[in-house]
Design goal:
The protein folds into two domains: about 20-70, AhpD-like (Single alpha-helices involved in coiled-coils or other helix-helix interfaces); about 75-195, AhpD-like, CATH 1.20.1290.10. Helices cover about 65% and strands about 0% of the residues. It is built from ten helices and no strands. Helix 3 packs antiparallel against helix 9 (about 160-185), helix 4 (about 75-90) packs parallel to helix 6 and helix 7 packs antiparallel against helix 8 (about 145-155). The longest helix is centred in the C-terminal third of the chain and has 24 residues, at about 160-185. InterPro entries: AhpD-like, AhpD_core, CMD-like, Uncharacterised_peroxidase-rel. GO terms for molecular function: peroxiredoxin activity.
């Protein structure tokens, strides 16, 4: 039913009310049902964002633009790893848990996202991945981005368009992390076990 009512007895998805499915616009319900069929459950971010339909549409349109594009050198797993690393710095429980799960699914590596979430500098990463995360975290932490940052990426096969993609994912998820923070967005229980075995 996608409503706050289904959460009785358990911690709420968000501190904001989740509209009942019958009260949501058709296009939002259609997207939510498509995601639920594909994944077997509906990630709580869809429920929480449905509180504001216009913002829901804008949020997921931009998410799709950066996460599902077919160009560039970033793999889906790379993008998820960027999200885990930057969300850990931003202390976003929802995004670390949810995107760590998706990373595990893409890579079949049950430990790497956990390592990155705790301390990316000690994680079992390639030099390429280290350069990618170093740039993403510089954006995440609002460091002064210099030509040296771009040159370091270029040494590992990333061009300026890839740098844009890395930076845009870090920036978008900084916003997403803040939304999750003030709404008290809770990860779905399914995310904790996905891709672990």
């Amino acid at each position: 039913a996608y409503s706050t009512e289904e959460e009785r007895g358990a911690r709420a998805v968000s501190r904001y009310p989740v509209p009942n499915k019958k009260d949501l616009p058709y296009d939002i319900v259609e997207l939510m049902e498509e995601v639920e069929v594909k994944t077997g459950f509906l990630p709580n971010v869809f429920k929480a964002m449905s509180h504001r339909p216009a913002e829901f549409r804008a949020f997921f349109a931009y998410y799709n633009a950066i996460m599902n594009k077919d160009t560039g050198r970033l793999t889906k797993a790379d993008k998820e790893l960027i999200i885990v690393a930057t969300s850990a710095v931003n202390r976003c429980l929802y995004c670390v848990i949810a995107h760590g799960a998706v990373h595990r699914i893409y890579t079949k590596q049950p430990a790497l996202a956990d390592q990155v979430a705790v301390n990316w500098k000690l994680a079992d990463l390639s030099d390429r991945d280290r350069a990618m995360l170093k740039f993403a975290l510089a954006v995440c932490q609002a460091d002064n981005i210099t030509e040296e940052h771009f040159q370091e990426l270029e040494k590992h096969g990333f061009d300026r368009e890839d740098a844009w993609d890395i930076g845009m994912i870090a920036a978008f998820f900084a916003m997403s992390n803040r939304i999750a923070h003030y709404t008290d967005l809770r990860p779905n229980k399914e995310f904790y076990t996905m891709g672990r075995t």
